[in-house]
Amino acid sequence: MANILILGAGSMGTAFSFPCSDNNHAVSIIGTHLENNFIDQINSKKKHPALNCDIPKGVKFSKFEKLGEEINKKIDLIIVAVISKGIEWVSIELSKVLKTNIPILILTKGLAVNNNNYEMLAHKMERLLKKNGIKETNISAAGGPCLAKGLANKIHTSVVFANADIKIAKQISNLVSTDYYHVSTSDDVVGVETCAAIKNIFSMVIGASQGLCHPSAPKEIKEENYLNTAAALIQESIYEMMIFTEKLKGKKETVMGLAGIGDLYVSADGGRNSKMGEYLGQGMTFKEAKKIKMPNDTIEGADLALEIGIKVKSDFDNKTLPLMTSMINTICDEAPLKIDWKNFK
Question: DSSP secondary structure string, 230-299?
Answer without folding.
Answer: HHHHHHHHHHHHHHHHHHTT--HHHHTSIIIIIHHHHHHHSSHHHHHHHHHHTT--HHHHHHHT-TT---
